[in-house]
Each structure stands twice: as structure tokens, then as C-alpha cells.
Amino acid sequence: MKASDWSQSCGSLIEGVQLANASDSEIDQMRQLLAQRGVLFFRDQDFAPAAHLAFAKSFGDLVLNKFFMPVEGFPEIAEVRKEADQTTNIGGGWHTDHSYDVAPALGSILVARELPTKGGDTLFANMHAAWSALPDPLKQRAKQLRAVHSNAHIYGRDGYYSRTDLASSLKGSDDVGSATHPVMVRHPQTGAEILYVNPAHTIALEGLAREESEEFLRVLFHHAQQPQFQCRFNWQPGSVAIWDNRLTWHLAENDYDGERRLMHRITLAGEPFPLPT
Ligand code: SIN
User: Quick one: which atom of ligand 1 is closest to the CA of 80?
Assistant: First the structure.
């Protein structure tokens, strides 16, 4: 197995391994690299749904997504689907998966199943790099704060998707909820400091007046969206990406109207972050 940096800011390209028969020691190396680089990219994988599921179970515990439709016969695999006649996509804004859960997901394993002829890239952003580059006074302030993360305004009955042409392709609109996490968290494996707020799911900073909370979140989001923290993955048939949801944000480009894009995602379970006292 050979790993090389995908870009300076994040990601590793892993070559010389088929995920469908990766050994325990290769999976262990992948876990270490993931915690360092935030996202792992693989090409030319022969990775049917049963192999995807078996690999994910070897990598860690799984968590089911409540809002995406499952793949037939595989309730653990969620479809990330945009049809040719739909204009809205899933994950089209910067986010981390499941930050609205009390135990936010460790990561996700995404497999390309049907791709548009062009476009449909996924962008990632390194939130350890974003935190490290934050000016000290902002770090000091952010370190004292907890943020509220929710999915109601996105997947709920009157949420964003209910007003789009994806409404009937999603489920669980009554199964929404929220959770509170520190604004700065430490990576459970490496101890690295991470900016843990994201534009899609973070709705407020606890204890601040609404305007103050919105203003500080705006500053943090603006800072974290700078191109120097980002990398871009261009999907090909057989491509797979595994990302760490604590360390990275991601965004699925929606630039392929008129074509279908279908991905299969398995979400890996994580653990709650200790709250600052
Ligand atoms: C997601 O946000 O989990 C999906 C990303 C993608 O479809 O590229």
C-alpha cells in the first residue's frame, strides 16, 4: 500500500490496495492516515455493496443515516442520489455529516456508482488547518464557547429540502434533533485542535445574543472557507473516498444538471466530545 499527499491542505491518495480484500494491518494504516490527512482517496476499486459493507464493518462501528433512502437489501448503505430531472443535490453546502448527533459520526465511506459525464466533484476542507490559522484572540474566544448543531432546518418538515425537488427523495422529516459540542474539539486519535462548527448544521453559539452568535459564526465560516484549506476530488468509475467528519468539512458540487449522479455512503459511528467546563 502506497500513500501520497493529494494536496498540501488535505487528503492522501492510496494506491496498491483493493478495499474489498484489505488486510487488518492495511486498515490500521488507513485509520492512522485518515486521522492525519482528513480524507483518503482510492481509484479503480472493485467494490460491490456487500464488499463496501464488509469493509466498513472492519473499519469501525456503523451509524444509520435517518434521512437518505437506503440501497435495496442494504439498510446500512445510504443513497446519495440526484436524478437527471432534479436540480437540488444532497450535501451541496459545506458541512460535516451528523454533527447534529450527540455522538457525531467518525467518518463516511463514499463509493461512486453512477457519475455525470463532467462535474460532480467533492470538495474537502481541513478544519485543523483552519483552526491553526485563526488569529489568537478569536481562538481564545472560540475556546470558551459551545455550539448548537441541528438538522431540523434542513431535513425537518418545513426545512430546506422540503421546499426543493429532492423533498420526495428523502425521509425522516419528523426524526430531527440537535446536539451541543465545543467550538474547538480535539481529535480523539491525534489530539489535534479542530474548528468544529460548519455552515450547514451549526445554528447558534450558546450563551450569546442571537446577533452576536450569528456574527461570530459568520466570521468563523468565512475564515474556514478559504481555498488554502481545501482540496478537490474528481470522481471516476471505481473511485472511493473515506473522510474524517471531525477533521474535515465537505461539499458536493452541483454542476451537472440533466445527468444522474448516484453514490453509496456508509457512515462510521463516532463518540461524543468532552464539553469544556
Ligand atoms: C455527502 O455529503 O455525504 C455526499 C458527498 C458527495 O455526494 O460528494
Answer: 7
